[in-house]
Amino acid sequence: MGAGGGLGVAANYSRTVSESSLAEVLRARGLRLTAQRQLILQAVLDLGHATPEQVHGAVREVAAGVNITTIYRTLELLERIGLVTHTHLSHGSPTYHAAGEHQHVHLVCRECGAIDEIDREMLRPLADRLADERGFRVDIGHVALFGVCGRCEDGERK
User: Whole-model pTM?
Assistant: First the structure.
């Protein structure tokens, strides 16, 4: 598959990492840039927040032969080399997003499933207090708070 085919393999990398940067990161770790790795990373970038199953669906639109095991292994590799990160937004699969994105806290509505984001600095006072009082360092970039969103709350009040 050519560099410009499919999910915009080269076109959308500017969001966090260029195609040549991806190749350099992989080569520095003794790995090579493959079309599958490009497609999987691009799917994560395009989807914003996605489970491995959602990434698989997006990649299969372009490369039908890519199986779910390849998706999981590649996401693990991309996380190990610092290009993606994950968080658990439900009891199911982890949700991946680009590591280069602004770190944020996820707000997950238990009623409708909507996912919103807030700046992680909103949790800084709590994180600082936990560090001071308990010696516990919170990884604010991997936090998901569960509750009921304003739309569902308004609906419940009616």
Answer: 0.64
